[in-house]
Amino acid sequence: MMEQKVVQGGENDGGIFGRWIEDDAGLPAFAYELDQRVDPRAEWDTRLIGKSRMHWHQIGNDRLIAIATDAGWVQLYSHEDGPRWINQYRSDDHVYAGGVSYLADADRQWRTWSTFYDDLPAVASVTRTFGCGYVRFLVEYEDVELDRIVFAPFGDGRLLASLVRVTNVGARARHLRHGEYWDAWLTNIDFPVGSGERFVPEHRDQVSKFLYAGYGAGWTNAIGGLRARHPDGPPGYRLPHIPGPTARTQPDLVCVPLGTPVDGWSVARVDLWGKGTRKQPDGLLSPTCRNLPAEGDGQDVAFFCATELELDPGESATLGFVYGAAPPDEVAGEVRVLGADPAALFEATRLAWHRTLPSVDFAGEGWLARELKWGAYYVRSGATYHRGFRAHTFSQGGAYQYIGGFNAGPRATVQHALPLVWLAPELAAEAARFTMAETAPNGEIAYAEVGAGLWEQVRYCPSDNDLWLLWLVAEYVLATRDKAFLRQPVSYWPAPYTRPEPVWDHCGRAIDHLLESVGVGPHGLIKLRLGDWNDLIVRESEAGRERVWEEAESTLNTAMAVWVLRRVAELADYGEDSRRAARCRQLADRFAEAVRTCWRGTHLNRGWSDASTEIGAVDVFLEPQPWALIAGILDDEQAKTLVGTIRESCADRLGTRIFGDRGGGSFPTLGGGQWPAINSTLVWGFGRVDPREAWRELRDNTLHHHAVCFPEIWYGIWSGPDTYLPTSLGEYGGQTWSWPGFGMQSWPVQILFVHSEPLNASLWLAGVLPGARGLQVDPLLPFEEWSWDGGLLSLRYSADEVTGELGALANERIEVDVTLPTGLRSAPVVVTVLGRAVTSSRMGSRVLFQLPVGPGNRTPFAIRAASVSG
User: Fold this and answer.
1) What is the pTM of this model?
2) Are 373 and 710 in contact (CB under 8 A)?
């Protein structure tokens, strides 16, 4: 069904768990090869729920997310009405999530095996692959090959699909029976406000039992498959969406064959397992084909479809199914749009991902090209849709979302969306709309979205939310030329029940909120409130919360504001709002001067915990340092000194630590490890001073590097947490943090920062900067041979040539300002657009020209020496 080739070259960055490969669609994939049943190295300490041997991969599209485990089962997540699992794995209740094939052999007394890895005989040959949008289990046993792929069809659908091919690889005809198993156990991931039980499974079970007990199920001709419906389902979706602490709707659940005959089915868990076991379910051989009435006080639905197969030697049979949850009035349409050919659906999905993911070549590093492509997949497949906010969002993921149940916060949503400005601009715009929709009418933006669209501060009231929203809107509009976006109306929280305002008015309100509600402290810095980027900085201060709120100041947010306000000024120029442009530049200049006063000879301080208590005068806190370099706040000598200080004080095997102890007695947050969310800006800042240091920092903050350094830690191979503990912590080095009752260690993957930030850093090092007049390209890389190609943008540099293509979401003629490579700086050049020479101007090492852009196609250009072009 699929061909694969091993990616050669470089150190082994699959660790002990497997190898990186390239599938036959040209997409990166991970071949998971560890036998977690017998290899003791598979075990890891969750620190909360005990030891585990389960490792998993994210599959998703623009709306749904699922985890695909090394054990073979797949668990579906939905965010539409609040975070919840659709088929939570619960072995004590005989609920095994599903996404599994069973196969029974008539010639061997109906001996049965499945794609549950733990249940397979040791002699079975098993290949497991984690791919872009799919998981694949290929099992060969007793002369039968079962190739099972579960995937999320590309786009905005709510249903997962499975593609199964059964092949007789023996020398005689076979009579087989295939069973498709998907379970159903809806569990809300609530975050009850003010409750000490917020992470206690029993509390969530009580809520879920009340909401989801009593589903009925059966075969439904309207969709051509199995459907489960709750009696309250259709009425519930006709009511308006009101924010609350828990998702309250009851979606339809479906399991529908795609072009596949079904010879028997079951919809009740008691019928599926009968007196058998998970290894040998009664329902495979004796499907009841009886409806399950809508009654009872439990969740009793489990889907099973049986299909008879008669296969001659060498013959194959292809089967397909879809599974998922959708509103009752929409479920038939969700099924219908997927068609009846599962193989074609899968190929269309892979082709779409191939066209969507970027191709990057930096210094011929094939592993980095693979990781950036893989990262772009993980970021986009981490998108979900929320009906209440009427927009897509990107959560931090990891333990925050999938255990804690909170989508925190705007800084994460925006930072993940920034690379999608170029790769998937429609989703970047959605992320901005979502952030505006979680803004209160007074301009306050929620720290987190929880429950059914509830607004939550979780004891934090940060001071940086306005900056992130402003930055994303500016980057999106300037890059895409979608000036009409500024006029689009968006409601405040709770959406859509507050008066909508245009996006540009939201931006104005954010600026006012930053200056007036957050405010400026006595040192001219933006106030800290109860946290800036660092949520724990107040807890680490000896000042009380009230005093911190009134007096604390953040060098980090003030330095970041310099950059963001200048970007908003560019946006205001583009939108012909000269008054706001002037105001933003004046504020940026004022804040830049305030940050300069924080220079302590070798680095910037961190701020003040109250009017008289300085943070970081001696110890080095990394967070504010990159922004001083990015925004050009320091002079050249100070900038060079700062780079040296960071390398001397914060260096670590895994990349730069967030804290450098220089004897000041400060407390390092969570051990002072590496945070991709901060280190990506450090890459950018280093690039403006020392491109070689920037390149080293980019490489050191990749999954590749973590895998080489810590090959036996599974998180850090194909996905990872929000921070790694520093190597100075000995046995805990390279792992992640945990607190009593909650910790990243318990769900240490699917944090999108480990995927979005290498993408952001690569774009920043490529020097891509949209502005009011158009696009500037001023590379910060220590080499001249490189390329970046994805979405709206393509660039290719060599020593004596620059080529590119640029698209937009609106028709416009823009100015392109390109810094020339060394081979073109001493000779006349010719610029061609669409293959024809155009007028250009020269400003030292830069060349400027006009380029028409618009939707649908990217406009090509080239810059070459005049003698070559002639």
Assistant:
1) 0.97
2) no
